[in-house]
Amino acid sequence: MKTPIVQWNLVAAWIGILLGFISGFALGSNFHQEQWLGGYASHKRRLYRLGHISFFGLALMNLMFYFTARGFEHVSHVTTIAGAISMPLCCLIMAHQPKLRALFLVPVASLVTAAIITLWEVVAL
Hints:
This protein is mainly α. The protein has helices at 7-28, 43-69, 77-96, 105-124.
């Protein structure tokens, strides 16, 4: 049985939701410690929270792409999945290596590319 290419976006969406729940549990089990990861307003803790939220946000984007792209001729699902993988990874890396903030270019460029190509296909329908 051959799986449609956009099916990977549906899988990525549900993996993102699962990872959002798991990372939320991990972060939530320590939130009561006032100085955990340097305190509530620390750079490290903010990036951990951003990574956690990005799991849910990018899962929603992959879910929307799945329903939108099923009728497309040219599917660019790789850019949406790449963004969903690289954003939380970049957040984790930058929480510990703030000088590597240029890494954010990878998920942002991937997601902007996905949005432009998807919009192009939607307009062309």
